[in-house]
Amino acid sequence: MRKPLIAGNWKMNGSSESNKALLTGILAQAESFASVDVALFPPAVYLQQVQQTLSGTGLYWGTQNLSQFKQGAYTGEISAAMLADFGCHYVLIGHSERRCLYAELDLDQRVLDRIVAEKYEMAVREGITPIICIGESPDEHAVGRTEEVVARLLDTVIAYSGVKGLAHTVLAYEPVWAIGTGRSATPEWAQDVHHFMRQRVASHDAKIAQNLRILYGGSINSDNAAPLFLQPDVDGGLVGGGSLHADEFVKICQAAVLKLG
């Protein structure tokens, strides 16, 4: 049985005061979801606050991005070694909002996929678990290119670093057409795509594929979480807006507990 993981991506939200209230609210009910893994991803400026609050609680923390470079003259970037210095257990890589909002659409998709692979390798080298985000755009979804898009990035990562690295990796299927839209994939659709991803990895290494956690991300809330998480190949969720409210996030975490029976 793969242990479910709920990852709360705060995106560009929060303040010192609101973060304190949110963390306090989550920790007050943490015993109710202690059987699953939970990680929070604050904006980088609040990483120290989250680290200090969560240390020793059993909850994990990480960041929303990292540089593909080890160090040097890269203004505004954060290296994998810096994240390790703050005890980060996870890092998000290739989130669709990084791809869509920051000139990355000007790059060839193969170049984008290579950058994701480079970031992935940097994280693994520092002992940080990368959560690689994969998903199709609304246009790609409309013309039935979901499997093509998913396969392309998976194949690039495997070709760049080898399948063995996926033993220390989490994948997240995040259909771009569902993120922040209130329109979530059906449990059946999510299961089909997750199964395809697992089988793609299994074609290289069946054991790694069996143990690989694959999360669903895309307008997850307390109403749709349980049906999604109960799918056999859905191992938890990458949660956006729902992670900004303690009671809502706790309910999503509790829904993951149901998967354990």
Topology:
Layout: E1 5-9, H1 16-28, E2 37-41, H2 47-54, E3 60-63, H3 80-85, E4 90-93, H4 96-101, H5 109-125, E5 129-134, H6 138-142, H7 146-161, E6 170-173, H8 187-202, H9 206-211, E7 213-216, H10 225-229, E8 236-239, H11 246-257
Parallel strand pairs: 1-2, 1-8, 2-3, 3-4, 4-5, 5-6, 6-7
Helix pairs in contact: 1-2, 1-11, 5-7, 7-8
What does this molecule look like?
This protein has 261 residues and is of the alpha/beta class. Helix content is 42%, strand content 14%. The chain has helices at residues 16-28, 47-54, 80-85, 96-101, 109-125, 138-142, 146-161, 187-202, 206-211, 225-229, 246-257, and strands at 5-9, 37-41, 60-63, 90-93, 129-134, 170-173, 213-216, 236-239. It has an eight-stranded parallel beta sheet with strand order 7-6-5-4-3-2-1-8. β3, α3 and β4 (90-93) form a beta-alpha-beta unit. α1 (16-28) runs parallel beside α2 (47-54) and α7 (146-161) runs parallel beside α8. The longest helix is centred in the middle third of the chain and has 17 residues, at 109-125. It starts with a strand and ends with a helix. Mean pLDDT is 92; it is low at 103-107.
**Strand order, largest beta sheet:** 7-6-5-4-3-2-1-8
Number of strands: 8
Shape: globular
What share of residues are in beta strands? Answer: 5-15%
Distance between the termini: 11 Å
Average of pLDDT: 92
Give start-end ranges of low-pLDDT stretches: 103-107
Query: Helical element count?
Result: 11
Alpha-carbon Rg, integer: 17 Å
- Report the structural category: alpha/beta
The sequence of SSEs as H and E is EHEHEHEHHEHHEHHEHEH
Tell me about the largest β-sheet. 8 strands, parallel
Give the % helix: 40-55%
